[in-house]
Fold each of these.
Amino acid sequence: MTETAGTGALPVEGVPAARVLDEIRALRAGDRPTHGGRLFAYVYDPGVAGLDELAQAAYAESAHVNGLDPTAFPSLLTMENALVGAAARLLGGGPGTSAPDVVGSVTSGGTESLILAVKAARDARPDLAEPRIVVPVSGHAAFAKAAHYLRVALDPVPVDPVTLRPAVADVAAAIRPETVLVVASAPSYAHGVIDPVAEIAAVAAAAGVRCHVDACFGGWALPWLRRLGAPVPPFDFAVPGVTSISADLHKYAYAPKGVSVLLHRDPGLRAPQFFAYADWPGYTMVNPVIASTRSGGPIAAAYATLRHLGEDGYLRLAAVTRDAVAGLADAVRAVDGLRLLAEPESTVVCFTADDPALDLFVLVDELTARGWHTQPQLAYAGLPASVHLTVTAAVAPRVAEFGPALAEAAAAARAAGPVVLPPELLALAGSLTPEALTPDLIAGLAAGLGLGGGAAPDRMAAVNTLLQAAPVRLRERLLVEFVGLLQRPTW
Ligand SMILES: Cc1ncc(COP(=O)(O)O)c(C=O)c1O
């Protein structure tokens, strides 16, 4: 491969612009389709003509603006404050509400919002040597990441295998004197189920503890669904005791990636989120969020997206999405052996297989082979393996095709039969400790599963079956090792 013909990032001689773009487009051809309603995770597509072009133009306008210093770039401060105001108003805060003093920040995504919610809660209690957070197991993994990064202990609360919600009594029992934050999801990513926010916030408030509502996924969907008449329970600042809420604009606000909002009920609650430093000879530094230098691109693109779609646009998109959810749920109900894990109450359809002859992981591969990209979820703590569908407005025109495709994929999965891994491999996965994994063992496992070589295999059922056979800590270690094999520099 010569340097200019390859994809090396630093060729000896620069490559003309048009060709560089062609190269990127050629690389992108191997990706899952971000548009068109056939990818049920990772992407949020409203299917609105012209919106991408608007967002891209807005992004380009502010791409080189630096959010490091809002006094140098007041355009960004203006747009950021407008985004926070819009999110606060949508989520029960602002003038004339019971939460008139809501403030917030724009972050790079849900994970950053959650890390900062945990940081604010932790740093509000400097008296505690070992701060703790209470999180239902259905809470997003980013809370565990926050706990890990911030050295905060995580107290998980189980969820009921039928309702997929935590029992409020269990949440209350998990709160200790060292607890700095209690979490509820609206809804959970995995199953799309809304936690009993009012009850959870009440037990947190009674204990004098902050309560964060993770509405990263649903914050820009549930309010519209409620306006359309869906029975959405209270989950926002209208609920006493809710102290902070996160809502991702790069999800159901349909903004390009890199933008979420973290709201606090008042400025005092937000203050410990910030980091300021003046004890060095450089510029005085104050960062509301984790990044210091940050591009204005995502903020400008989100601002343009919200202004262009407006409330009427979001209502229309929510109605379309609601109907698509209903259609997909019907498609699942129509296939023998498949069962909805939860009745859809937001924008997620999640199903499992009750019939051992129908292997969900094989079904996912069969759907992929037919151009439908769904997300497998491993069995965990008494909850069965499941398939997750994030439903966005662009799915609506596809619903009629999905039903037959699902039935066909299910028939093909039955015909193929469940994945059978060699018994010794399964036994190894079930008994190995993460510490016992040697580089040779990992290389052998990866080769056997078709991993490595810079790309994931087309069929993932064997990988998922192996991961599922492994205890949680070994799953994590295997994931790290497998992705480590993919992330290798090209020379
Ligand atoms: C409920 C919930 N919280 C947090 C996150 C993390 O968001 P991000 O991937 O933007 O970091 C997600 C992502 O799907 C989510 O669904």
Note: The chain has a mean pLDDT of 96.
Amino acid sequence: MGEAGEHRISLTIGTAGHVDHGKTTLVRYMTGTDTDRLEEEHRRGISIVPGYAELDLPSGRRASLVDVPGHERFVKNMVSGATGVDAFLLVVAADDGVMPQTREHLDILRILGVEQGVVALSKVDTVDEETVELAALEVEDLLGSRDISAPLVRVSGATGEGVENLMQALDALARDTTDLRSDDLARLPVDRSFVLKGIGVVVTGTLWSGEIRLGDVLHTPTGLRPRVRGVQNHGHPAEVAYAGARTALDLTGVEASEIEAGDVLLSYPVPAGRNLDARIRLLQSAKPLAHGVRVRLHHGTRSTNARVRLTDREELEPGTGALARLRLDEPLVTLRGDRFVLRSMDGVTVGGGTVLDPLATGRRPDPSWLEALESGDATKAVPHALARKPTQGMTTEELSLVLGLSPEEVSRAVEIDAGLETVGELHVAAGEAAAARERLLVALERRAAEHPESPELTVAEARTATGLSTPLADALLADATFAAIRVTDTGVSLPQADRVPPELEREAEQLLETLRAAGIQPPAVESTPAMRLLVKRADAVELGGSLFAAREAAESALERIKTICREEGEISLAGLRDSLGTSRKYAQAWLEYSDAQGVTSRTGDVRVLTRRHRQAM
Ligand SMILES: Nc1nc2c(ncn2[C@@H]2O[C@H](COP(=O)(O)OP(=O)(O)OP(=O)(O)O)[C@@H](O)[C@H]2O)c(=O)[nH]1
Ligand SMILES: [Mg+2]
């Protein structure tokens, strides 16, 4: 496929401006596409939902145009269309001048972080030069008051006057826009979802970031995993959808009812959050915003009601900003750095904000954490993020996602910070790792002291001893540079644990002599380390009831039992007692040992050989 077929988009431009000021007409003049697709839009002569067109610029670059409605009733559709655009095309009719939605749209664009663009002073064919001048002055004033600078081009969508100049101005924007959305995560906020006969479930949206390829498996925050069976870019079949492109996907593995406008498709799973911590800002034109007030929050193609909890004040003054927690009625997938728009419950745009912590936890926001996030400074944010999960550690990828920093920035911050270390794939505060190693060594020393005959901890016991989460504990145990421990198939120990202390060895030797001398009538003894060492080496066996016997004694007792069974078909307690010439106590203990070893089994008052031992006859 050639370059044209690839449909890489250099720039996504969103229109803006008051109703009827000529946005759709200009888009149609420049692209040949009528973005008013709905019958209702034609009947009423206004735009209602965002429409999309491709614009080939004079330089050969290609832009994606999002044409939004201007009517005040459809501002929420404007917000949905405007999120994810790189630049604006603000249209102001020369015969009408700056009007309420001219201001509101410009405010929304600023809230969304869209600060570059071009102003088209439209319908210049309908008025005299003086009126055009007046309108131009109004526009200059508006831009000045919002601290935005943008070229102003006089055009007519009726005669085509000035359209060349407008295209040149848009081309200049495209030239100055570098690739701002190169992050790996593909995010497609869905704006339409429907079923096409013979094809199946189709969704459309503007791809915010990343790429989506034919055959990719995507994720939804609800755990669905649709597969991409078809890709279209601006209506052209394609192998890949690139960031910024108007994208349609044909999906399998989902029902039409499971995906709706407002959902988001992702290249890897990102959880949706109900609480987000953010820096919010109130427009100069808004009324003061009280702590605890309810608002409508618009993010991407979704909106939800939310309660604003101000972190450090009772009221937010117009034109100022503050840290806040937003408690959402419906969970949203957001990432650090995402912009959102806040509107009052009666539909007035009052401000917006930038997401700092998309998955906020705790009762109230931690300002120092939010400031670390906001700083965008990896050397501050990385240690702070790790300190919040002290026993878990985080991978470079996790940190990068949570902090909204590139994996390279994260890795560099870890490298230069002597207070951090990396265990396997996990970064962790060096102090935490050192403390965990110390806890493990203490546990191993205690084990060796209490059980010198088997000084190992199982892997599970060792993990618990570190006090770390399982993945971090496992990484610590697998860390070859941690030479103070030895990990084998059977467990974890201190390296010198193999050597049995000489005193223990001597004690065990003496004990074994005693056991051998006692034969089948061993004395009752405690399970000392020396005894357990003998059992571990199979020099002795445990009969139960504090009785241990030398291996040879056990073998001869079992032989005796087998012989009696073979001769008589069975063995009784009295029979064994008489045969061994011992007390009932020992006869009972040996019979139970014999049962436990699978030599005999009990039937009523007597025992018979098990099948295995009968066959061996
Ligand atoms: N004479 C003249 N008429 C224009 C020009 N641009 C738009 N119009 C007319 O103005 C009316 C509104 O134009 P649209 O392009 O639909 O306006 P819009 O900004 O898209 O309106 P909404 O999307 O509803 O906000 C239509 O009747 C157009 O024909 C122009 O440059 N000159
Ligand atoms: Mg329109």
Note: The two ends are 81 Å apart (CA to CA).
